[in-house]
Amino acid sequence: MSHIQESLDSLTQILTPAQIIHISLKMLGSINKNITFHSLRTAYLAWKLTETINDNRLNTRNIVVLALYHTLGYFREDTIFGYNPHDTNIDFFSEEKQITSKYVFSCYYLKYMTPLGDDALALENFTQPFNEDMKHFLYQEKYKAIIYLCARISAYLYHHGDEYLPENINEIAPGYFDTEYVRAFNIANRDNVLVEAVKDDNFVDELSDYLNTITFEKKDSEMLEKLLIYFLDFKSTYTVSHAINTSCYALSLGKRMKLNPEELSELYCSAILHDIGKIATPQRILEFPGKLSPEDMDIMKHHVNHSKRILSGHAPEQIIENVYRHHEKLNGTGYPQHLTGDKLNLIQRILTVADITSALNDSRSYKAEFSTDKTKSIITKMTEAGELDPAISKFVLEDFDTIVSEQQYLYKVLCVDFSHVLARHSDYIFDNTEFMADSLIDEAAQDKDSDDLDNMAELDELEEI
Predict the structure, then answer these.
(1) Which of 36, 348, 427, 431 has a CA that sits 20 to 30 A from residue 420's CA?
(2) Which residues neighbour 285 within 8 Å (Cβ) at sequence distance 6 or greater?
């Protein structure tokens, strides 16, 4: 597999850290705008407060990024506590486990899935009162104190739209704030400059300009980029694996089509992003265990429009077009624009074949993976019908086993071990056996024979086809 590893090593990252963060926030905003704007306000205030505090040991970049993502646990459905991420009446500060567990999830997600590492431990006991003693030997307590203070101020301003902050900010949450940081905030907010910026939403552009200045090491930036895949897990685990697999197939096919490193990098970036619009698609449609109705299929197809909206302004135009067109077919039968082959470039054609190969060879909520013969038969029919480029699909047909082996190798390289996050989060939730007894209901597993799943799956159930 040295040749495919060489292709991977030759890639240059197209998206900057700022672009990745902006795109990820628009993805989260597609789930719940109120939570996203709360995080934006918190991050802006945390940035201004950190700049005012005279402590060169504070990492302003990491504090801002941590504040932007500190509410990640609120974007995923929580069946144990009956939480829906689309709720509008959000409690951010209760010390009940249904709330604290969300920050524990955020803590370990950011620790294991991002370059923040141990800085993310600031969120582990996020809703607990400030601890002066802890501050002196755990730097994370400082990060927590900054972000918590700013989060409480953000929530206060949201719920008291016509009011300014109380003269004594400690009245918002007595005993929970670091008095040193309260004094620093008052200095930063002299003449209510920060409050006015937040009230008028002027802070968004200012915060965006700051984000455009931040940098990460290459490996850390690549780690951030994977968030654009793994945030899809908040809606559908199948979509995450499909995005990774499509990226793997795209690299294998791009190499066989003799793309140069610059073209391969464009193809790979497009493949990573190709389905991010599904973050705005209802989960009931993404996970539906059967054939979608015509109405629901139309909603599913709209994900390409969501992708274009999310990427606009934060990704190169060619990447956006590649993503937008990955369901087009050479004979004009694709969507959303029904473009014909003369309008589709080589990278877009490769991405389409990679996407379909992944769809056929993946397991979904409504199907098991197709057999090799069935996958090749479908791709042959689509090629003969003039939908796929035969110069590309021939590699799937003639070299299928090798391409699948390369996909399996690349998958191990590109995927992130999410088990640490789930394990630590589960340990926190289930550390109370009485709670477990009250909350868990045993359900008989309904195993379905894979042959039944295979027989149920029809071609028109695959939105990729």
Answers:
(1) 36
(2) 292, 296, 299, 300
